[in-house]
Design brief:
Arginase, Chain A, alpha/beta, globular
Length: about 290
């Protein structure tokens, strides 16, 4: 058993409009190859997608999710570092870690969006906007029936989230989901204390790059006005890594609009205070 697995999961289909995040994920993983030996999830670079049961590309993404989750269970890593395409890829590693740590897992979501839609409420049918709600037990049955343990709202800590659909706002309010506005990133101990107050020892960090202010980092798939700077984000990650055991860290939705951000992103990740180096023996060409 490897204590840590570095996973490359460049799925673009849960957004479906463009494969730009697929190519950007490959580029990021290549740049991080000196720190990691990635295990790859096989994802086709081109594919015709159709909407099924309110979800675009469901017949493509659901079997890939189930096989990835099964393979994670077989590999049984203690920690997962993932470079992913869209937020839709989070369901497998977070679902696995929540099962492994029996719910002693705080999920810190640095994301401009909550991803709390369902197939019924989603205005687009894009699964990357349903990933968190699916982990909470409300999503396509092809996903929910494979998850052994759903997240609870108390495990969720939204941070920097600022572009919400009405059904997502209602869910957050009705379930008292923690949300830390990006204006409070200058005081990272506020979020640390929120997590400590719930008694969690292990955390998973979800870093969707659209959480960042586009003026500081322009190359996210869904650029959203506002948000913390790269420096504020890095300080926040260091504060979390100092106080908790980081068992999962995912970087998703990188998309080169200007093509000049790769060095900035590598610095953000490698100097976050989170140990990302893999001790596994898998090569970048291996499959899970």
């Amino acid at each position: 058993m490897n204590s840590k697995l570095s996973l490359l999961y460049p799925e673009w289909q849960s957004y479906g409009k463009t494969a730009s995040v697929y190519h950007a994920a490959l580029k990021l993983a290549e740049a991080l190859a000196k720190f990691n030996e990635f295990t790859c999830v096989d994802v086709p670079a081109t594919e015709q997608l159709e909407k099924v049961d309110g979800v675009l590309g469901l017949r493509s993404i659901a079997p890939r999710f189930r096989s990835t989750l099964d393979d994670l269970r077989k590999a049984a890593p203690e920690k997962i570092f993932m470079v992913g395409g869209t937020c839709g890829v989070e369901v497998a590693p977070v679902g696995y870690l929540n099962e492994k740590y029996a719910g002693d897992l705080a999920v810190i979501r640095f994301d401009a969006h909550a991803d709390l839609n369902t197939p019924e409420s989603s205005p687009s049918g894009h699964f990357h906007g349903m990933a968190l709600r699916t982990l909470l037990g409300e999503g396509p049955h092809e996903y929910t029936t494979a998850l052994a343990r759903f997240l609870l709202p108390a495990q969720i800590f939204l941070a920097g989230t600022r572009d919400l659909d009405p059904p997502e706002l209602e869910y957050i309010s009705s379930n008292a989901v923690s949300i830390t506005p990006f204006e409070r990133f200058k005081e990272p101990q506020e979020l640390v204390k929120k997590i400590q107050g719930k008694g969690f020892r292990n955390i998973h960090i979800h870093l969707d790059l659209d959480v960042l202010n586009p003026a500081s980092f322009p190359d996210a798939l869904m650029r959203t006005p506002g948000g913390p700077t790269v420096e504020e984000m890095q300080a926040m990650l260091r504060a979390l890594a100092k106080e908790f055991q980081v068992v999962g860290f995912s970087v998703v939705e990188y998309c080169e609009h200007q093509g000049n951000s790769i060095d900035l992103l590598i610095d953000l990740v490698t100097n976050s205070g989170v140990t990302i180096a893999s001790n596994g023996s898998a090569n970048a060409s291996d499959s899970l």
